[in-house]
Amino acid sequence: MTPGIFSARANLGPNAVDIEYDPGTVDFEGIRRAIESAGHKVAESKPAAVKAAIEEDSDPEQVAREAEYRALMRKFWVATAISIPVMALSYPDLIPGLRDWMPMGSDTRRIVWVLLGVLSLPVLLWAGSQFFVGMWHALKHRSANMHTLIAIGITAAFLYSVIAVAYPRIFPDPALAEVFWDVTDVVVALVVLGLALEIRAKGRTSEAIKKLIGLQAKTARVVRDGKEIDLPVEEVVAGDVVVVRPGDKIPVDGEVVEGSSAVDESMVTGESIPVEKRVGDEVIGATLNKTGSFRFKATKVGKDTALASIIRMVKDAQGSKAPIQRVVDLVSGYFVPAVMILGILSFVVWYLVGPEPRFVYATIVLVTTLIIACPCALGLATPTSLTVGIGKGAENGILIRSGDALQTSQQLDAIILDKTGTITRGKPALTDVVVAEGRDEETVLGLAASLERGSEHPLGEAIVKGAEQRSIALTDAQDFSAIPGHGVSGRVGDDEVLLGNAKLMRDRGIPIDALTGEWERLANEGKTPMYLAIGSAAAGLVAVADTVKPDSKAAIDVLHSLGIEVVMLTGDNARTANAIARQVGISRVLAEVLPDEKAHEVQKLQLEGKSVGMVGDGINDAPALAQADVGFAIGTGTDVAIEASDVTLIKGSLMGVVTAIEISRATMRNVRQNLLGAFGYNALGIPVAMGVLYPFLGLLLSPLIAAAAMAFSSVTVVTNANRLRLFQPRRVVS
Amino acid sequence: MTIDRWAVLIVGLLAVAFIVWFFWLKRTKGVRAGETSGGYQEAMILVKGGYTPDTIIVSRGKPVRLNFRREETASCSERVIFEAFGKSAHLPTGEQVAVELMPRQAGEFGFACPMGMFRGRLIVE
C-alpha cells in the first residue's frame, strides 16, 4: 500500500472509494496515482470536483459567452459593411449622381440590383445563419421563437427582391419594382448587434455571483506534523488547524483555537465594521483577517462552507420564477405563432384592398410585422431583474431564497419581530449600578463582579464583563456558594458579600427599604436588578438586562415609514417586553407567548387580512417563520442555510429586513417597468407595423426602423435590469 | 375580385390554418421513463431548440431522474426550471446534468427555460 494511505474501502456505492490517509505524507495526486496503479481510472480529481461545485458556471461559460459575442460582432461588421453600399444603390433616385447614372427602368439599374442581390447573399446565409438554425431546431419541436420571425422576415424580403429583379413585368408598373436587399442586410446587422449587446448585458446581470465565487481563497497555511505548510484550499480537511496571519484571507470555515484578531466580514455578511475574534469564536471562509494572527480549526470545507452554501442558494434563487412570470409564460406560449398569423392576415388585407403597388405594400407590411415583434423582451423582463436583484441582496448579506419570496416581500403589511436575539442582542449586559449612601460604584460593582467570577450564570457573566469594561480590578472570592432561585454569597477579601433578590436579603435579615424604590424603577424598565449586601448592610443594586441592538430602533423607524405595521412577539413577561417595546417604538406587543404558540400568533395576524413577515432565529422560531408569508431568519456566521426561512439575513441586524424589503420593492418595480415596456412595445409596435395607422395618418413603418426597434427593445430591458446594480442599502448611523 | 386576389386570400387562410394546427394543436405522445436498478425512473432529455423528448411519463411515488444534455450555446436554454417542484438546474453546454424529483401527486407538471420559450411536460400517473 502507498505510504500515507491507511485504508481504502469501496463501499460508498458505484464509482466512489473511501480513503483514509495522512495528508502530511500523501496528497491527492499521490492518491490518484495509487488508484491508477491499482488498475482503476480516476474520473476527476477531488479538488477539481469541489471546484466545479463552487464554480459551476464561471470560466468555461464565460469563455463561451465571450466567443459568441465576438462571433456576433464579426457578423455585425460584415453585414454593416455590405449594408452601406447596398442601401445607397437601392435608392438611387434619392442620390443625384446615381439617379442619372442608373435611371429608373434602365438596364444599368437592373444589373446593379442583381449584383446587390449577390452581395446580400452572404449576409442572409452567413451573418443570418443563426436565425435559420434556431428556426429549424424549434420547428423540429413544432415550436417557434424569435429566430423564426426574423428568418421568415428576411427571407420574405429577399425573395420579394429576387422576384422584383427577375420578373419586373408582374408589377403593374415595372419601373416601380423596387428591391429590398437593404432590408435583409440592415435587419440582419441590427438584430445581430442587438443579440451581441444582450449577451454582454446579460453577462453583467450575474456579476454578483461572480464576485462571490472570486472571494474564494486559493491556498491555506495548515499545520501538519507540527509544520506549517501551504496547501491548495481544496485539500484542507475538517479538523485541520489553519494558520492565519495579518492580511490573510481566511480559507475555510472554522473555530478559533489560538490568538485573536479583527476580521473584515463585509464581503459575506455586509457588516462594514471588522469583527473581533477570540478563542472559541467562529470564523467564515473568504473573509479577510486584519491585524492579529490566530489559528483556527477547520470545521467546514469545500462545498459545505458558508460561502459555497451562499453561492448555491443565490444560484437556485436566481433560477427560480416569480409568480408575476406566469402571465408572461401564458402569453409567450402563443406569441410567435400569433405574430405570424397577424403578418399573414395583414399581407392578405393589404393585397386585397391596399393601394398600388399592392404586392410591394403587402410585402413591406408582412416583413415589418414579423421583424418588429420581440418575444425576447417579454421573456427577459422578469428573469433578468430577478437575477440582478437577488444578486444585489447577496452582496448585502441578504439571501432571498426564491422569486416567490422576493415578490411577496414587497407587499408585506405587517412584520412580527421576535424580541430576544432579533431586536435585542439576546445576551444580558450590565446596565445600572445604584449605590446606597456612603458607598461608591467601584466598590459595589467590584464586589459583585468578584463574587460572580466563580459563577457560570449568564447574569453573572454580564456583571463580570461590565466590571472589566470599566477596568475595575477583581479579586478571588472565598466560600462561594450559589443559592438556587435566590442569589449567591461568598467572602471577598474581608467582606461577607451577598448578591441576590429581595427574598434572599429578607431571609438574612438585611434591611433593603432604602433601595426598593430604585429596584422598582429598574424592574419597570425591563431590567433584572439584584441587591448587594456587604456584611449586614445593603450596599447597592446592580442591574443587568438584555440590551437592544444599536440599530434596532432605526430599522423599526424605517419599517414604520415604509408603511409596515411592526409587532413584537416574545415569551418574556409583559413588563420586560413593554420596556423594550418602548425603547424601540413598537406599540403592539404580544408577550408571554409560548414557543409553540408563535406560529398561531402569526396566523391570527394573517386572519386580519394582512400579509405578514416574521423575523426570528431559524431554529426556535422555525414553525412561525414557515407560517408567515415571508420568514426572515436572522442567522449569524456560518449557519446560512436555514431551511424554514424565505430570506436569510447573514448579519444579525434588523436593518437587513429593511434592506431586504427595499431590494424586493426595487426589483419588483424594475420587473413591472420591464413588463410594461415589453408588453407596451409589442402592443403598439405590431399594429403600427401592420399598417393600422395608414388609413388615418398615411403612416407606414419602414422595416429598417422596425429592425432597430426590435434589436434595442431587448437590450433596453436587460439594461434597465442592470440599473438595479446601482441599488444602495440605507445606512443608519447608530 | 381578380384571380390573384382570390389566390392570395385562399393561400393566406390556408397558411393561418396550418400555423394553428402545426404550433398549437400538437399533442406529442409522451415517453415513459425507464426504471433503473437503483429504483429511479430515468429519462434522457436533449436540449437543442427545445426538449427532446418534451413529454415524460412517470409513475407517482418513485423518484425521477431526468438527465439533461444541452447541445447549443443560445443562452436562453442554459437553465431548466421545474416550477411545481421548486427545482432548477444549470445546464452547461455539452455536459449531462441530472435533475432529481419526487413526484408525490399525479398530474401534469411543466418544465421550461427561464424565458418560457422551451417547454416540456412531466406527466405523473
Description of the structure:
The complex is a heterodimer of chains A (734) and B (125). With 734 residues, chain A is α+β, with helices and mostly antiparallel strands. Helix content of chain A is 51%, strand content 18%. Chain A contains 27 helices and 24 strands. In chain A, the strands form five sheets. In chain A, strands 12-24-23-22-13-20-21 form a seven-stranded mixed sheet, with helices on both faces. In chain A, helix 8 (181-205) packs parallel to helix 27 (703-722), helix 9 packs antiparallel against helix 11 (306-318) and helix 12 packs antiparallel against helix 13. Chain A is elongated. The relative contact order of chain A is 0.10. Chain B has one domain: Immunoglobulin-like. In chain B, the strands form three sheets. In chain B, strands 2, 3, 4, 6 and 9 form a five-stranded mixed sheet that branches. A four-stranded mixed sheet of chain B has the order 1-5-11-10, with no helix packed on it. In chain B, a hairpin with a 5-residue loop joins strand 2 and strand 3 (41-47). The longest helix of chain B has 22 residues, at 3-24. Classes of the chains: A alpha+beta (734), B alpha/beta (125). At the A-B interface, helix 3, helix 6, helix 12 and helix 14 of A face helix 1, strand 4 and strand 8 of B.
The assembly state of the depicted protein chains is heterodimer
Helix content of chain A: 40-55%
CATH architecture of chain B: Sandwich
Measure the end-to-end span of chain A: 62 Å
* Protein chain pair with the most extensive contact, residues per chain: A-B, 48 and 43 residues
- Radius of gyration of chain A over all CA atoms, rounded: 36 Å
How is the biggest beta sheet of chain B arranged? 5 strands, mixed
Q: Mean of residue pLDDT of chain A?
A: 86
Give helix and strand order of chain B, one letter per element, not per position: HEEEEEEEEEEE
Model regions low in confidence, pLDDT < 50 over at least 5 residues of chain A:
45-57
Structural classification of chain A: alpha+beta
Spatial strand arrangement across the major sheet of chain A: 12-24-23-22-13-20-21
How many separate domains make up the residues of chain B?
1
Outline of chain A: elongated
Q: Biggest sheet of chain A: strands, sense, closure?
A: 7 strands, mixed
